[in-house]
Amino acid sequence: MGYYDSEQHVNEYISIAEGYDGRELIGRLHEFLEPASTVLELGMGPGKDLEILAEKYRVTGSDVSEVFLKLYRESNPNAVVLKLDAVTIDVDTTFDCIYSNKVLYHLSADDLHRSLERQQAVLNDEGIIVHSFWRGSGTERQSDLLFVYYTEDDLQRMIETTYETLVLETYSEMEENDSLLLIARRK
User: Fold this and answer.
1) What does R_g of the chain's alpha carbons equal in angstroms?
2) Which of 11, 31, 61, 105 is 20 to 30 A from 144, comparing alpha carbons?
3) What's the CA angle centered on 51, arms 119 and 40, to 5 degrees?
4) 44: which residues sit within 8 A by CB, 6+ positions away?
5) 119/121 Cα distance (integer angstroms)
6) In terms of Cα–Cα distance, which of 68, 54, 59, 108 is closest to 86?
């Protein structure tokens, strides 16, 4: 059982994340992605970013947590949401973009590498990835969750053979320059 398979943990996350969304990150996405393009969000959680993405794109939400998916489906019965693991991304469809906001830092470096390879396979030609990470180095475990911090160099090395880097920059979410934005195009 995963951490977010608990309704208590999901509710705690929703409370902690109140007031945060990826509107600014999605604004950067608009520079590279045409309206009505297809977007898969990995780790949609309560669906805040999915709803922002849906304002311009044809979206598919996904999460590994059935609790998050059930909550979202209850208030959005027509939404396309899938139970997906961010490493294996077991879908038969391809997308113009794959997006996540502070989700993939829960993966070990090896699993992140596998996820990025799998993402390349489910992207259309010239498809892009847009992901945010906590910036730093090292790993920690809290409440049965893994947190892996990355530097610009870490991410660049991880993608350089399979993606063309469009944006790799720091930004501030809770503290100055505590976050990284990666936007890259499939080679």
Assistant:
1) 15
2) 61
3) 10
4) 50, 61, 62, 63, 68, 72, 81
5) 5
6) 108
At 150 the three-state DSSP class reads strand
What digits encode the pLDDT tens for the residues 143-153?
A: 778 899 999 99
CA–CA dist 13, 180 (Å, integer): 21
- DSSP bridge partners of 57: none
Which regions in the chain score pLDDT beneath 70? 1, 3, 5-6, 9-11, 13-16
* HSE (side-chain half, CA atoms, 13 Å) at 147: 10
What distance in Å separates the CA atoms of residue 59 and residue 153, rounded to the nearest whole number?
A: 30
Q: Which sign, positive or negative, has the C-alpha torsion 165, 95, 49, 111?
A: negative
Distance (Å, whole) CA 92 – CA 21: 28
- What is the third-level CATH fold of 3-186? Rossmann fold (3.40.50)
DSSP three-state, residue 180 = strand
The predicted model scores a pTM of 0.94
State pLDDT tens for residues 62-99.
Answer: 999 898 899 999 999 999 999 999 999 999 999 999 99
b/e burial code for range 55-83 (CB count within 10 A of at least 16 → b): ebbebbbbbbbebbbebbeeeeeebebee
DSSP reduced 3-state for 79: coil
Residue 170 in tokens? 């720091």
